Design the sequence.
């Protein structure tokens, strides 16, 4: 089978597109014929050597996948040949990745794909969707009628947060770096979208929620915690999901006197049961059109190296040439 893989960590040029043995479904594994995969920033970090676990050799890159069940292992109980499925959290914690024509995945990490949801949509929503769901509902316990500020409402995770918060009945204010991105955020469901390059974000939040917002979701790697905590209401919850090397000053006083709480979201440390709970809501919302994939580029799997370069240009160099997820198809 064809696969995109690395023999050693390093730049995107290390990605090889070539032949690897087709895996077999053993034990509780399901063999999935890949329909679509998606690129995430974490994929590029792992490929580049920022690894927190030992990688298989060769290592197939990628976390997300959607496809069709080709075969099942003898211990599989939830899926059968022909089922449409999606997954995330592969290529992590020492597991093999998804950028291949066929993938053997333990059934505990697989979820059924609704009949009216495409492989591309499921793959593009996977990792970013479960990240948003974990932070909003497991950690922040967002309730209908509450308010949330999302920093960057058209990005991979940010767009999922905006849509899920609205689906749950919350009021949403977010930011975008252009009038076009703000218009897109409104289309996704944001009640207010602020152009942070031309408008006063703090003033807009004050007008939107005079007593502060209940939840702040930060997507930036280097957060301004003074500003973020000033946006929070009494007993507000702050969600952080990026910035592994960030060491910003922390305003202890304003934080504790309002009784706030701080939550870090690392999706690959979630349990299989926690991710499955996310998938139930995500499937319902994807099927109902309340959770839409933000796909900025679709490429053949053979162009995995180019896809990684494009992702890095936007994540690290902030080139602004990508609006949405990169999806690849075998």
Sequence:
């Amino acid at each position: 089978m064809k696969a995109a893989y690395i023999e050693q960590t390093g730049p995107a040029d290390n990605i090889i597109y070539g032949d690897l043995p087709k895996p077999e479904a053993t034990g509780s594994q399901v063999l999935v014929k890949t329909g679509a995969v998606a690129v995430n920033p974490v994929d590029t970090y792992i490929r580049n050597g920022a690894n927190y676990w030992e990688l298989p050799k060769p290592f197939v890159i990628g976390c997300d996948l959607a496809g069709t069940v080709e075969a099942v292992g003898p211990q599989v109980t939830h899926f059968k040949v022909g089922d449409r499925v999606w997954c995330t959290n592969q290529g992590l914690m020492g597991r093999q990745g998804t950028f291949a024509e066929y993938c053997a995945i333990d059934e505990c990490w697989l979820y059924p794909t609704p009949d009216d949801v495409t492989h591309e949509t499921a793959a593009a929503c996977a990792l970013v969707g479960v990240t948003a769901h974990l932070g909003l509902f497991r950690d922040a316990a967002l309730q209908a009628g509450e308010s949330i500020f999302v920093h960057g409402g058209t990005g991979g995770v940010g767009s999922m947060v905006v849509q899920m918060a609205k689906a749950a009945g919350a009021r949403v204010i977010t930011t975008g770096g252009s009038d076009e991105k703000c218009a897109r955020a409104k289309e996704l469901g944001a009640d207010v979208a602020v152009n942070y390059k031309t408008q006063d974000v703090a003033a807009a939040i004050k007008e939107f929620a005079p007593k502060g917002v209940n939840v702040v979701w930060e997507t930036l790697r280097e957060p301004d915690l003074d500003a973020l905590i000033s946006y929070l209401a009494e007993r507000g919850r702050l969600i952080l999901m990026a910035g592994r090397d960030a060491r910003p000053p922390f305003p202890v006083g304003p934080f504790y006197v309002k009784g706030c709480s701080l939550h870090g979201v690392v999706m690959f440390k979630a349990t299989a049961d926690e991710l499955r709970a996310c998938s139930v809501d995500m499937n319902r919302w994807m099927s109902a059109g309340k959770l839409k994939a933000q796909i900025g580029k679709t490429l053949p799997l053979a162009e995995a190296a180019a896809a990684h370069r494009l992702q890095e240009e936007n994540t690290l160099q902030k080139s602004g040439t990508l609006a949405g997820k990169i999806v690849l198809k075998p």
User: Anything to note?
Assistant: The mean pLDDT is 96. The chain has nine helices and 16 strands. The radius of gyration is 20 Å. The first strand starts at residue 2 and ends at 6.
